[in-house]
Design brief:
With 162 residues, this protein is α+β, with helices and mostly antiparallel strands. It is built from five helices and eight strands; from the N terminus they run ββαααβββαβαββ. α1 runs antiparallel to α3 (46-56).
């Protein structure tokens, strides 16, 4: 039996290595803003979007609350030898139940991922205000609004740098 590494554990929340089962448990419960973002950018369903990120990430974590996945996040390298990776996070509305713990430890996990890649980047749908607030709180550099993805919808480029 494979041991799952725990990175954070309290009575409210756990952050651990992700398992493929988490994809299928979390996908039907994603926030509407995340569902819309996945669709606008890549025309993927929640399950396809989570599965893509899970299978391509070199680091992939699951956030649990009450022993069920409420979020997944990680980094996908842009190239094998490069210094940049795509950072991502997809969550259910239940993440709000552990919002304080999540916010408190977000910067730790961003710094952990920055130890692997000095530049973490991605695009966020301008209508995903909850994610934009979180990115600003985590000190992401937020760029101007640009057309992005399959639909060329308005998104904002953002980065974290070591």
């Amino acid at each position: 039996m494979q041991t799952t590494k725990l990175y954070y554990k309290t009575k409210l929340a756990v952050v651990r290595d992700a398992k493929v089962e988490d994809v299928f448990e979390l996908a039907p419960n994603l926030r509407l803003s995340d569902i819309n973002e996945i669709w606008k950018s890549h025309h993927r369903t929640p399950e396809d979007g989570l599965l893509y990120e899970f299978t391509h990430s070199i680091l992939c974590f699951t956030i649990e609350h009450n022993e069920k996945p409420v979020g997944m996040f990680g980094i996908v390298p842009l190239t094998i030898t490069g210094n940049t990776a795509t950072i991502w996070l997809l969550a259910s509305p239940d993440l709000e139940q552990i919002q304080r713990a999540f916010l408190k430890h977000s910067r730790y996990f961003i710094n952990l991922m920055l130890s692997f890649y000095p530049i973490l980047e991605n695009y966020v749908d301008i209508n995903n205000t909850q994610s934009i607030r979180w990115l600003k709180w985590c000190r992401a550099e937020i760029g101007p609004v640009v057309p992005y993805g399959i639909e060329q919808a308005p998104f904002q480029y953002f980065t974290f740098k070591r």
